[in-house]
Amino acid sequence: MSYTVKNLNQGDRELIAFRIGDQEFCVNIMSVREIRGWTPATAMPHSPTYMLGVINLRGAVLPIIDLSARLGMKPADPTARHVIIVAQVRRKVVGLLVDAVSDILTVTDEVVQPTPEISSELERQFARGILAIEKRMICLIELEALISETESEAA
Amino acid sequence: MDMNEIKEIFFQECEEQLAELESGLLKMNDGDRDPETVNAVFRAVHSIKGGAGAFGLDDLVAFAHVFETTLDCVRSNKLEPTQDVLKVMLKSADVLADLTNAARDGGSVDESRSRGLVKELEALANGELPSPSAAAEAPAPKAAAKPAASAAPAATPKPTDDSGFQPVPFSFDDFGGEGDVGSGLPAYEVIFKPRFELYSKGNDATLLLRDLSRLGEMTIYCNTDALPGLEEIDPEGAYFFWNVTIRTDKGEDAIRTVFEFAEWDCDLTVKPVDEAAGNTSANEELPMVPVPFDLSILDETGAAEVSSAGNRANETAAAVAAAETASNVTQMAAAAARVEKKESAAAAAAAAAANAAAQNNAAGAGQTIRVDLDRVDRLINLVGELVINQAMLSQSVIENDTTGTSSINMGLEELQQLTREIQDSVMAIRAQPVKPVFQRMSRIVREIADMTGKSIRLITEGENTEVDKTVIDKLAEPLTHMIRNAVDHGIETPEKRAAAGKNTEGTVRLTAKHRSGRILIELADDGAGINREKVRQKAIDNDLIPADSNLSDEEIDNLIFLPGFSTADKISDISGRGVGMDVVKRSIQALGGRINITSKPGHGSVFTMSLPLTLAVLDGMVVTVAGQTLVVPLTAIVETLQPEASAIHSFGANHRLISIRNSFCPLVDVGRILNFRATQANPVEGVALLVESEGGGQRALMVDAIQGQRQVVIKSLEANYTHVPGIAAATILGDGRVALILDVDAVVGASRGQSLKAEMSLAAVG
């Protein structure tokens, strides 16, 4: 995956796209700190099912969220081929387990279409729009929504 | 660097000076009459005054000035530092500390106290020796007599307050001054010999001489006798001195004021001279040839050099300039050296010796730098990573290396040793001596002794024992509480002590020492000891123990740590609100420490605290629970045991008790509490950890296996996740994986029915 910094026009934004199962999602690249391979996590007691546990990220304790389970799909069975997207959400750093990172996109705001109203509550909760790129459909995820629950737990 | 930062440094230095001051005074109190001790005390007050003056902290300056004047009397042997005098001085040191704090943080100080002390200090300086009673009573009538003076040194933080200097008698005896100050002679002879320290502290001889020139008409000679050849010259040394004759109507005081802040770093002689005999007398006394010296050169070179090379360069530059303008300077100096060979050689030797002594002093004090704590913490974190990384590397090499003889293994071992060493050294950076905390205690003892009318002596030992800064910071509060208790409850009144045949002066001994990787702090008093009958009765009255309970002496002694226990008949100002020792115990436990008491009726009590050396690492027992690795803090564990089937007794539907030496202790399945497994494990297959929790109760925690005992670095879970009930923190083990540190108190609490799960299920819903 090669990428060179282009001069971004006003209103352009860069997104990082990844796969979970046969679906594609993307998040704002500015939130992403790094991408790394899967390492076994230490389970946390009493944690929600999508919380896989914590891993050691160069000395920091990093919680890992199974994004598939978090979005209401079937829980992942992590293997060495899975990747973790390390993202900064508000003041916390979390790891998102996904199947693979697929692309980096530069899009303008107009490309992002509104999410159609469907009954899936989770889709409504996390999706912020849909992009049509080269006949693929990519769903834009709002990171803040992903850990809003963990945030309120702390409160 | 803005003004506030400089001010912050000043206050940091003030703290050091105050500590120096107090330890010096205490040494004198113990009979130390070394002039160097007196000088050190004087210097401390003087430095505070100097700095405070620079920042316009008038209250501080005013008080320090009076204090300094009295100390000067001691220094010049005009005032004998008796116990009573030192008592006043120690109190003054306390007030000085209060004033410093008030200047830093705002807030106010006890004005009447500082005012009273100013009176006492002035009385001492005027040679009125205090009798113990007079010292206490004197301030009141005097305050009425001198109402104007009382307002001046008042410790209000208002800068508008009239707090200028009071005229105070100042002794010049040690300077060899002989003439009357006010005798009307207009000419003075000033010999100003700067020492190396003067320049190193950023003072400038040029500026001082220029200031002096403003007082009146003056003639100035620079003496260059001591200037060595160019190859021997120390560019940072001080070789010149100046011989000034000045005509002024401002008096000797004004001349001295010019040199006030440099006084300690130069040899200064000021004396009035007979006009006719002025210069000759100087020549007779000092083996030197005055070299005519033009002040304007001093000014030019001074100005040029301040901007480029700094203060110390001034003298060298001035030397060059002087040599240029008066080319015969060196010849003259050489001639003078020949003529006065003996004297000047002796003088030079003396100067060299003094210089060497000063440098030795500096070396002995140890060189220090101030480093931001955050930087140290980051370094500690990184080194922690290094250790883990190194362990991971070793592990993977061992796994992949089948021969087992490669040089890689040897290299790894060396790396391991190095990283351990680095870790130890880095941890040592955070370590600080407990001295500051101990010194604070001496003040508390003084104050409470005053309040209660008891006579107490505090002896501290091992105050240079080092421990992590965070531990020190958190130690002060429980220690204060315990000292108060010891003085208020432990030590008897002088009358009672006399009746018991003891020394009327009570002794409190505070000791710190290292023992097996922990710091041991002992607080011993020689008071009445614990009245076990009274303690027992009180505990029964407060429903803390059943009336018919049979307790050992030790158990009774430890009752005082129970919440809501206080034996004081009347609630005093100092202690006895019933929030005493249980709070102490809890704060010590929060630090990962333990506290114990042993008491001997009639002979006093000893409190022993054992604390970890640092809060960044923790001694833990690594255990396995339902396939997960957990760390249990070692401080919580009383003992470990392998339960036998016969010792396990079911109690109701879900509970089990384990019998340990004929007492029954509830069995807590950690895996079940943390929801790691659905059903209770078979206790016989596991290991029981007998733990003691905050509430004092014992529980047996069931784990599957013990992996070992090790020191772990504590990592926050909250930083990126959230607080997890039952888990105190996380750590990273040698294999690079995260392990959770068990919160024993929470787990025990959960087993009591304060369910972790209830709290948790709420959290899961969000």
UniProtKB/TrEMBL annotation, chain A:
All copies of domain CheW-like, residue ranges: 12-152
Coiled coil: none
SUPFAM superfamilies reported in the protein's UniProt record: CheW-like
Pfam families for this protein: CheW
GO BP, sorted A to Z: chemotaxis; signal transduction
Domain of life: Bacteria
A Gene Ontology cellular-component term: cytosol
Protein's name according to its UniProt entry: Chemotaxis protein CheW
The organism of origin for this protein: Rhizobium pisi
From TrEMBL, chain B:
Gene Ontology cellular component list: cytoplasm
Domain spans labelled CheW-like: 617-753
Annotated region described as Disordered, given as residue ranges: 128-169
TM helices/strands, residue ranges: none
Catalytic activity line of the entry: ATP + protein L-histidine = ADP + protein N-phospho-L-histidine
Modified residues (Phosphohistidine): H46
E.C. numbers: 2.7.13.3
Domain annotation HPt: ranges: 1-103
Function field: Involved in the transmission of sensory signals from the chemoreceptors to the flagellar motors. CheA is autophosphorylated; it can transfer its phosphate group to either CheB or CheY.
Name by which UniProt lists this protein: Chemotaxis protein CheA
Organism, as annotated: Rhizobium pisi
